[in-house]
Amino acid sequence: MTYLADVAALTRKDLRVELRGRDTLPAMLLFVLATLVVFHFALPEGSGDTAAYGLLWVAIVFTALLGLARAWVPEQEHRVLDGLVLAPCDRSAIWLGKTLATLVFLLAAQAVALPVFVLFFEPLHAAALAGVVLADVGICAVGSLMAAMAAASRAREVLLPLLVLPLAIPLIVGGVGAAVSADAERFILFLLLYDAVFAVLSWASFEYVVTE
Amino acid sequence: MSWSQGELVAAAYAVVFFFVLVYVAIIAAKLVRLQRETAELVELARGKPGVDA
Amino acid sequence: MGLALVLALIVAPEDADQGISQRIFYIHVPIALTAYFCFGLGAVKALLLLWRGDERYDLESYVAIHQGTIFGALTLITGSIWARASWGVWWTWSSNQLVLFLVLFLFYCAYFMLRFSLEEGQRRARSSAVYALFGVALIPVSFLAIRLADDFIHPTVFTRDGPQMSATMFTTFLVAWAAVTLLAYVLYRVELAGKRLDADLRELREALQ
Fold this sequence. Notes:
The complex is a heterotrimer.
Chain A: H1 2-21, H2 24-42, H3 50-77, H4 80-86, H5 91-120, H6 126-151, H7 156-180, H8 184-210
Chain B: H1 5-47
Chain C: H1 2-11, H2 24-52, H3 56-87, H4 96-117, H5 122-153, H6 167-208
Helix pairs in contact in C: 1-6, 2-3, 2-5, 2-6, 3-4, 3-5, 3-6, 4-5
């Protein structure tokens, strides 16, 4: 199936570029760790354990935004995106490749950040972790599409968070709920629903966003 | 600053009405501008050779 | 047109008992419904744009969302006033509808940011259309999310009064809704005509110069 082969190639390209350049992942990692430390100081004494989960999600969302921005900036600056669009592959493969690559970066950053979070703040059980992974998928899926939209604009650094944050709100609800609520299952299911709906939407509409 | 319920009801409807009023005013201003522009373009068109106004 | 608005106001005196703050219901809910409808219309036009490729749909979608956002803002304002009247606070997170509208309002404001920062053309039309479609997908998803969030954000202290509507109240509501819808439609047509005229005149100007 050449479609999957295309996707794999695109994902590999992004990962390889990162391995060589090493500018995105360290930045994301440092950012999320620094944010966690800031949160320690930002949380007033006795504000409850659950508040920490909320802040974790804020950190995740903004780290993801960082990763997304970095994933698309070189494409625009070096006109790589135009080249990719001209390539004889299904355009949505570009989206999928980018999403997967960003997802890998995000998960990698979290692989370090989450243990640190547990160390600093609160334990994370299985449902919470599932929530994190599912929400990651959602953010990368939607974020990739929004980043592609914003890439064409003059104010893309500002525009990307603006576009992504309203869409990320349900994800935050899902993620925090999975971590905090007694009925975590509902939230996990909800995250699955979100991912299904928006991933499909993003996948299907990417083509329209990047073609002239 | 505690308002009576009646005042708030009036406020709600008033807000909507006010918005509509402002909107109408904006449309009116736009209309005036469009009229002016059309007049300008008619003048331009008259100036061109081969166009009879 | 303006008659529709007057009608809406005349309707109000027809109101029945249950406390005077109930009356806000007649203007707040129709406005909210109309906002949803406008967003829906915007999404439909957006879909048509992507499907048929006719440029006209871009402007129609934009204007629909423009009106939707205005009505959305009005929903938030009237909703806030109603909250003040019913519960004594200007804002509460436990009102699902208010929170939903806040999220949507943010989303559609970003729509305008998107549109204004892109160069005019196919790219902008299509991105806007896709975004509009995401908007309507977001409506049910957000609603679900907010419902779920009630679980851990706030205990529902304030119960939304679900009025068992008597016949007169119901008819009043219908009339109010019809009036607001008519108003929205009229504004939509006017705005659309204005924008089209603008574009045409610009074209004319370029042709003459």
